[in-house]
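# step 3/5: fold
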Amino acid sequence: MTGTVYKSTGSWYTIKTESGKFLDCRIKGKLRISGIRSTNPVAVGDVVDYELDKGADEIRGVITNIRDRENYIVRKSVNLSKQIHIIASNVDQVFLIVTINNPPTTTSFIDRFLVTAEAYDIKAVLVFNKIDTFDEAMLDEQLYMQHVYSQIGYDCLRVSAKEGKGIDKLKEMMRGKTSMFSGHSGVGKSTLVNAVEPTLDLKTKEISMQHQQGQHTTTFAEMFDLSFDASIIDTPGIRGFGIIDMQKEEIGDYFPEFFALKQDCKFNNCLHKDEPNCAVKDALEKDEIAWSRYRSYIQILEGEDEHFRTNDFEDERAINGQEQ
């Protein structure tokens, strides 16, 4: 029998069967995917084979096999840096929820997330939430960020989950697809899900003003079927997003604006760092590429995970202001 994983709690998994019913399952023995060093062998979105556990007092299942994944999105395991944590699989698109100030979403985090989405061939959309809270400076910052990412080719939405602004457009983009919501704790993922589908009534918490960080309300990833022919995967808040399993030569290919210029570099294996006649660096000097994006690239290239929280846009805007 076959089903789809809708919830993972680490040891138990809730699957939706082909008949539309939900069934709690465990995994059979040492179930692993060959070639993937993952802390969680089964992820939300996985299509699995299962059999009924005849020895249980109540009807439960045992997952015996994981079908091939169309895609998946991962991050570094929090405690085991050499292993990955699969956030979700078989998704059509991912919405990265971005907030400007409460809490701040850094450009390094955004770029690392986008690189991972590009690497695993998942469409990414930036959703700027809490626009109802913007003062003039925050609005200016948000519009500047939107300009940078729109120029690269990423879809950007401006929404207010609390006031319902932009929700209809978001729902239209979700229709007929399986979407994942992700972002830092406190960016309003659960509030946004509730705005999209009020009957879900997911728990929400306020921002901790002392540290400008969100409190974790979603502990495990979970998928929900929505009333307008869509599915959504709500995920726990992510504090850092480490890049894994990428060769240095391929990282630039996951920056679309770099990849578009790659053929014009003198060397085929150009890392866009110290090489002469580099088209990417030439474009950078002409302000055709955002410095924040280039700095994110260099940090990823050099493995500087500790710079997650550096907000390069602030530096870039300051530099631009001095030059004007």
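# step 4/5: annotate
The radius of gyration is 21 Å.
# step 5/5: archive (pending)
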